[in-house]
Amino acid sequence: MKKTSISTAVLAALLATVALAGCKKKEETVDNNAQPAAPVATTPVEPAAPQPMTAAAPVNVSGVTVGKTAAADKSVASAALFAPKDVIIISVRTAGTATNANVGAKLTYQDGQVAGEQSQVLNTTGDETTNISFTNANGWPAGKYRAEVTVDGKAAGTPQEFEVK
């Protein structure tokens, strides 16, 4: 009988194990190598039309005037003839947008010698007038002169010629 009771105990344990395994809920397994599910069909959406970038127009010179006096609005009446003691004003009209743009004016004498050179910083979001004045304590030598304008070191506007008598 001893043999039967041990066999019966082993058999009972074996049956209990099988019964428990059968009652256990099946666990879901994840296959890391599985392909992703196919995308769900949706109604296609038309892409929005690309919008043009509205960058600010860079500053450009719309006019250069050489004169003797400036009005309250910075406008300068054009003059072609100056006296030796006159102030020479180079008026630069610009359009567009500028942040720290360097507006320069250079006067050259008839033989190409630089008679004066100056610059100003321009910050604007629209039309602007920048006046650059030149004086000569000893008086301007008689002769023909040329006024040239630059913006950030590049020639801009139409050079103007005038004479000192």
What would you note in describing this structure?
The protein is mainly beta and 165 residues long. Helix content is 13%, strand content 45%. It has one helix at 2-23, and strands at 60-70, 76-78, 81-82, 88-95, 98-109, 114-124, 128-134, 143-151, 154-164. The strands form two sheets. A five-stranded mixed β-sheet has the order 3-9-8-5-6, with no helix packed on it. Strands 2-1-4-7 form a four-stranded antiparallel β-sheet, with no helix packed on it.
Summarize the structure.
The chain has 1 helix and 9 strands; from the N terminus they run αβββββββββ. The chain has one helix at 2-23; strands at residues 60-70, 76-78, 81-82, 88-95, 98-109, 114-124, 128-134, 143-151, 154-164. A hairpin with a 4-residue loop joins strand 5 (98-109) and strand 6.
